[in-house]
Design a protein that fits this description.
Helices cover 82% and strands 0% of the residues. The chain contains five helices and no strands. Helix 3 packs parallel to helix 5 and helix 4 packs antiparallel against helix 5.
Length: 109
């Protein structure tokens, strides 16, 4: 009887799982360590900075099904390029220039 051949796709699954666990762990659990420097640099209260982080996570959860549908239709490369350009340029340009708390929260979140 022949032994089953090893499926190398499981290496990709394992690497993706490890990558997600490390990156998400670093993002979620290290945010508190950056709270004081962020509040000092941005000149905003801690509640407002935490609100921006919470809104970003909420938006990520709400738009994930839409992102999945767009990836199925147009491909991951196209969606990644379009969303990556939009999600990095807008917050970095507008969060520093915002004058009110509402505009800061909307630009970060």
């Amino acid at each position: 009887m022949r032994s089953p051949r090893f499926f190398y796709g499981w290496i990709i699954v394992g690497a993706g799982t490890l990558n997600s666990a490390l990156l998400l762990g670093l993002v979620f659990y290290s945010f508190g360590g950056f709270m004081k420097p962020l509040t000092q640099e941005l000149g905003r209260p801690a509640t407002l900075v935490a609100l921006g982080f919470s809104l970003q996570r909420l938006g990520s959860g709400l738009f994930s099904p839409l992102a999945g549908a767009l990836i199925d239709r147009f491909g991951a490369r196209f969606v990644g390029l379009v969303s990556g350009r939009r999600s990095t340029a807008r917050p970095s340009c507008s969060s520093r220039a915002s004058s009110s708390s509402g505009s800061f929260s909307s630009s970060v979140g």
